[in-house]
Protein 1
Amino acid sequence: MPPKPHPAKPNVEITYCRLCGWGLRASWMAQELLTTFAEEIGSVTLTPDASGGVFEVRADDALIWSRKEHKRFPEITELKQLVRDRIAPGRSLGHSDRAHGDQAG
Protein backbone atom coordinates (compact mmCIF):
# COMPACT_ATOMS: atom_id res chain seq x y z
CA MET A 1 0.00 0.00 0.00
CA PRO A 2 1.47 3.43 -0.94
CA PRO A 3 2.20 5.86 1.89
CA LYS A 4 -0.43 8.49 2.62
CA PRO A 5 0.51 11.88 1.17
CA HIS A 6 1.31 14.53 3.74
CA PRO A 7 -1.05 17.47 3.69
CA ALA A 8 0.55 20.49 2.06
CA LYS A 9 1.92 22.99 4.54
CA PRO A 10 0.85 26.60 4.03
CA ASN A 11 2.86 29.14 2.10
CA VAL A 12 3.39 32.63 3.41
CA GLU A 13 4.13 35.32 0.84
CA ILE A 14 5.56 38.73 1.63
CA THR A 15 5.23 41.19 -1.23
CA TYR A 16 7.33 44.30 -0.76
CA CYS A 17 8.23 47.43 -2.68
CA ARG A 18 11.76 47.01 -3.98
CA LEU A 19 11.89 50.68 -4.99
CA CYS A 20 11.25 51.68 -1.35
CA GLY A 21 14.11 49.44 -0.16
CA TRP A 22 11.94 47.20 1.99
CA GLY A 23 13.67 43.94 1.03
CA LEU A 24 15.67 43.76 4.25
CA ARG A 25 12.54 44.25 6.37
CA ALA A 26 10.71 41.58 4.35
CA SER A 27 13.58 39.09 4.67
CA TRP A 28 13.89 39.70 8.42
CA MET A 29 10.16 39.09 8.88
CA ALA A 30 10.41 35.95 6.73
CA GLN A 31 13.27 34.64 8.91
CA GLU A 32 11.25 35.34 12.06
CA LEU A 33 8.23 33.48 10.68
CA LEU A 34 10.34 30.52 9.54
CA THR A 35 11.95 30.28 12.97
CA THR A 36 8.68 30.56 14.89
CA PHE A 37 6.65 28.29 12.61
CA ALA A 38 9.35 25.79 11.61
CA GLU A 39 6.91 22.86 11.75
CA GLU A 40 3.82 24.62 10.39
CA ILE A 41 5.02 26.64 7.37
CA GLY A 42 5.89 24.95 4.09
CA SER A 43 7.61 28.00 2.64
CA VAL A 44 7.96 31.76 2.79
CA THR A 45 8.14 33.56 -0.52
CA LEU A 46 9.57 37.05 -0.92
CA THR A 47 8.05 38.83 -3.90
CA PRO A 48 9.53 42.16 -4.97
CA ASP A 49 7.11 44.66 -6.47
CA ALA A 50 7.73 47.95 -8.26
CA SER A 51 4.28 49.50 -8.01
CA GLY A 52 5.30 51.71 -5.10
CA GLY A 53 4.64 51.40 -1.39
CA VAL A 54 3.31 47.85 -1.29
CA PHE A 55 3.97 45.65 1.73
CA GLU A 56 1.54 42.76 2.00
CA VAL A 57 1.60 39.44 3.79
CA ARG A 58 -0.52 36.52 2.64
CA ALA A 59 -0.98 33.06 4.10
CA ASP A 60 -2.15 30.61 1.45
CA ASP A 61 -3.36 33.52 -0.70
CA ALA A 62 -5.44 35.08 2.10
CA LEU A 63 -4.35 38.65 2.78
CA ILE A 64 -3.47 39.00 6.46
CA TRP A 65 -1.59 42.33 6.41
CA SER A 66 -1.56 45.30 4.08
CA ARG A 67 0.54 48.37 4.76
CA LYS A 68 -1.82 50.35 2.56
CA GLU A 69 -4.82 49.34 4.68
CA HIS A 70 -3.17 49.70 8.10
CA LYS A 71 -1.00 52.73 7.20
CA ARG A 72 2.00 51.11 8.88
CA PHE A 73 4.16 48.01 9.01
CA PRO A 74 3.17 45.22 11.39
CA GLU A 75 5.02 44.71 14.64
CA ILE A 76 6.67 41.28 14.48
CA THR A 77 4.62 39.90 17.39
CA GLU A 78 1.46 41.17 15.70
CA LEU A 79 2.43 39.48 12.44
CA LYS A 80 3.22 36.21 14.21
CA GLN A 81 -0.19 36.27 15.88
CA LEU A 82 -1.94 36.87 12.54
CA VAL A 83 0.00 34.08 10.83
CA ARG A 84 -0.66 31.74 13.77
CA ASP A 85 -4.38 32.54 13.71
CA ARG A 86 -4.46 31.56 10.04
CA ILE A 87 -2.23 28.46 9.94
CA ALA A 88 -2.11 27.06 13.51
CA PRO A 89 -4.98 28.56 15.53
CA GLY A 90 -4.50 26.38 18.61
CA ARG A 91 -0.78 27.08 18.96
CA SER A 92 0.59 29.19 21.79
CA LEU A 93 3.18 31.82 21.00
CA GLY A 94 4.33 32.09 24.61
CA HIS A 95 5.34 35.60 25.58
CA SER A 96 4.31 36.90 22.14
CA ASP A 97 0.68 36.24 23.05
CA ARG A 98 0.73 38.90 25.75
CA ALA A 99 -0.90 42.21 24.95
CA HIS A 100 1.43 45.07 24.03
CA GLY A 101 2.57 46.86 27.14
CA ASP A 102 1.95 43.93 29.50
CA GLN A 103 4.74 43.61 32.02
CA ALA A 104 5.63 40.27 33.52
CA GLY A 105 5.77 40.78 37.22
Note: Helices lie at 23-36, 67-70, 76-87.
Protein 2
Amino acid sequence: MTTKLTPTAAALPSTEPAHVPAPLPGPPAPSIHVRAVITWLAIFPLVAVGMMAVAPLTEGWHPVLRALVLTLLVVPAAVYLVLPRLFAVYGAVMRRLSSRRTGQ
Protein backbone atom coordinates (compact mmCIF):
# COMPACT_ATOMS: atom_id res chain seq x y z
CA MET A 1 0.00 0.00 0.00
CA THR A 2 1.43 3.36 -1.00
CA THR A 3 0.70 6.57 0.81
CA LYS A 4 0.50 9.86 -0.99
CA LEU A 5 2.72 12.50 0.52
CA THR A 6 1.33 15.96 0.90
CA PRO A 7 3.65 18.95 0.93
CA THR A 8 4.36 20.43 4.30
CA ALA A 9 3.36 23.96 5.20
CA ALA A 10 6.97 25.08 4.81
CA ALA A 11 7.01 23.88 1.21
CA LEU A 12 3.83 25.72 0.26
CA PRO A 13 4.10 29.25 -1.08
CA SER A 14 3.06 31.90 1.39
CA THR A 15 -0.41 33.30 0.92
CA GLU A 16 0.27 36.26 3.17
CA PRO A 17 0.78 39.54 1.31
CA ALA A 18 4.20 41.09 1.40
CA HIS A 19 4.57 43.98 3.80
CA VAL A 20 3.21 47.08 2.13
CA PRO A 21 3.89 50.37 3.89
CA ALA A 22 0.86 52.44 4.76
CA PRO A 23 0.27 55.35 2.39
CA LEU A 24 1.26 58.76 3.61
CA PRO A 25 -1.66 60.84 4.78
CA GLY A 26 -2.60 63.35 2.14
CA PRO A 27 -4.82 66.37 2.16
CA PRO A 28 -8.50 65.62 2.52
CA ALA A 29 -10.51 65.34 -0.67
CA PRO A 30 -12.45 68.46 -1.59
CA SER A 31 -16.09 68.48 -0.62
CA ILE A 32 -18.73 67.64 -3.18
CA HIS A 33 -19.66 71.33 -3.36
CA VAL A 34 -16.07 72.36 -4.15
CA ARG A 35 -15.85 69.61 -6.78
CA ALA A 36 -19.11 70.84 -8.35
CA VAL A 37 -17.83 74.43 -8.55
CA ILE A 38 -14.46 73.38 -9.98
CA THR A 39 -16.19 71.15 -12.53
CA TRP A 40 -18.49 74.00 -13.55
CA LEU A 41 -15.46 76.30 -13.87
CA ALA A 42 -13.99 73.79 -16.33
CA ILE A 43 -17.13 72.95 -18.28
CA PHE A 44 -18.74 76.36 -18.79
CA PRO A 45 -15.87 78.03 -20.68
CA LEU A 46 -15.26 74.89 -22.74
CA VAL A 47 -18.93 74.72 -23.74
CA ALA A 48 -19.12 78.45 -24.49
CA VAL A 49 -16.00 78.41 -26.65
CA GLY A 50 -16.94 75.05 -28.16
CA MET A 51 -20.39 76.31 -29.19
CA MET A 52 -18.85 79.25 -31.00
CA ALA A 53 -16.17 77.09 -32.60
CA VAL A 54 -18.48 74.40 -33.99
CA ALA A 55 -21.37 76.73 -34.86
CA PRO A 56 -20.21 77.46 -38.44
CA LEU A 57 -19.64 73.75 -39.10
CA THR A 58 -22.91 72.53 -37.58
CA GLU A 59 -25.26 75.32 -38.64
CA GLY A 60 -27.96 73.20 -40.25
CA TRP A 61 -27.64 70.20 -37.93
CA HIS A 62 -30.28 68.96 -35.53
CA PRO A 63 -29.64 70.36 -32.01
CA VAL A 64 -29.18 66.86 -30.55
CA LEU A 65 -26.48 66.06 -33.09
CA ARG A 66 -24.81 69.40 -32.36
CA ALA A 67 -24.88 68.61 -28.63
CA LEU A 68 -23.40 65.17 -29.33
CA VAL A 69 -20.47 66.62 -31.27
CA LEU A 70 -19.91 69.34 -28.69
CA THR A 71 -19.89 66.90 -25.77
CA LEU A 72 -17.56 64.57 -27.67
CA LEU A 73 -15.08 67.44 -27.70
CA VAL A 74 -15.75 69.09 -24.34
CA VAL A 75 -15.93 66.12 -21.99
CA PRO A 76 -12.52 64.59 -22.81
CA ALA A 77 -10.91 68.04 -22.81
CA ALA A 78 -12.38 68.73 -19.39
CA VAL A 79 -11.61 65.33 -17.86
CA TYR A 80 -8.08 64.87 -19.19
CA LEU A 81 -6.77 68.42 -19.53
CA VAL A 82 -8.63 71.08 -17.58
CA LEU A 83 -9.96 69.40 -14.41
CA PRO A 84 -6.65 67.83 -13.31
CA ARG A 85 -5.00 71.25 -13.56
CA LEU A 86 -7.81 73.00 -11.69
CA PHE A 87 -7.72 70.40 -8.91
CA ALA A 88 -3.93 70.74 -8.71
CA VAL A 89 -4.28 74.50 -8.34
CA TYR A 90 -6.97 73.99 -5.69
CA GLY A 91 -4.69 71.58 -3.81
CA ALA A 92 -1.77 74.00 -3.96
CA VAL A 93 -3.92 76.85 -2.66
CA MET A 94 -5.27 74.70 0.17
CA ARG A 95 -1.76 73.53 1.14
CA ARG A 96 -0.55 77.13 1.14
CA LEU A 97 -3.48 78.25 3.30
CA SER A 98 -2.96 75.31 5.63
CA SER A 99 0.74 76.07 6.07
CA ARG A 100 -0.05 79.70 6.83
CA ARG A 101 -2.56 78.67 9.50
CA THR A 102 -0.09 76.32 11.17
CA GLY A 103 2.70 78.89 10.98
CA GLN A 104 5.12 76.82 8.93
Note: The chain has a mean pLDDT of 86.
